[in-house]
Amino acid sequence: xxxxxxxxxxxxxxxxxxxxxxxxxxxxxxxxxxxxxxxxxxxxxxxxxxxxxxxxxxxxxxxxxxxxxxxxxxxxxxxxxxxxxxxxxxxxxxxxxxxxxxxxxxxxxxxxxxxxxxxxxxxxxxxxxxxxxxxxxxxxxxxxxxxxxxxxxxxxxxxxxxxxxxxxxxxxxxxxxxxxxxxxxxxxxxxxxxxxxxxxxxxxxxxxxxxxxxxxxxxxxxxxxxxxxxxxxxxxxxxxxxxxxxxxxxxxxxxxxxxxxxxxxxxxxxxxxxxxxxxxxxxxxxxxxxxxxxxxxxxxxxxxxxxxxxxxxxxxxxxxxxxxxxxxxxxxxxxxxxxxxxxxxxxxxxxxxxxxxxxxxxxxxxxxxxxxxxxxxxxxxxxxxx
Length: 386
Description:
Blueprint: H1 12-32, H2 34-55, H3 59-63, H4 66-83, E1 85-87, E2 90-96, E3 102-104, H5 106-124, H6 132-150, H7 155-172, H8 176-199, H9 207-217, H10 225-240, H11 270-302, H12 307-331, H13 349-367
Antiparallel strand pairs: 1-2, 2-3
Protein name: Rod shape-determining protein RodA
InterPro entries: FtsW/RodA (IPR001182)
Subcellular location: Membrane
């Protein structure tokens, strides 16, 4: 297998982009909390090594165990509900190695495992994808892990996984007629749920989740003013950086970072650190790197040997794109606070390792293009939608 791979087919552009965005992450996490910089650096190095190992593993061989991956995913999500540590009313982490060990968040790994599972599942159902039986089966298979995620409770990752699933179904060739029909049903349901959450006392979601939504809708309300301070300070921090920022590790007490005016700034609001210390130039550079990472994933997906490889690449690309969009919108006040990390930049070793595993899979898909088959025509993704 390894002898058939060719060095020229290895996507070094993607690796350089990942190294560059990870360096931004190390610097920004170090500025937000110097005590975490070394761990972030170790995480990046370990993630790159893990990515390289995964990139040499044939993804087609891995997909042979797609049902095992699905069951293992359910097992991890069940484990976190039974033995997970509870913080701020949520049980999302498993403590490994006692008090001196580290925490593991299964939901981050679940995103990659579900992408792998549905890549194989959708390829096996290419011919009957647009039948009611296949669609219902896919939705049920998604609903089981989603129920475990939302039980933690973890609304942000429930939404993220749901969006990625929709993208995977679209990429696999779901008919426009079915998409339109689903939207006609889903959009009214979302509007009804939104009305019930914001205008009634029904406990559809947890109280802290409702508070975040209400804070976003009515930040001037005294009842939610305390919750709005964090997001308002994030917006102020980004704006205060202007064009070039105040500089990394500046000692200005008035800054939102050094003055501790924004909680979880090393994770959920890392973009506020970028805006304040690196300015518009630094923020634009981060956005550009994330854009090209997503682009490279999609580009390799279009040259994949089969639809499963194409789905894996698009799934990982959508994961990076969706999480980036949510994190930056939260930091800039365009969405309610969700606690979503910025890929490769925010502190969080489980998220970091999971993303690098995803990128390793993308690199392996790229290795198995037309050159891998000695010049034969590679798989070309063509969808005929009704």
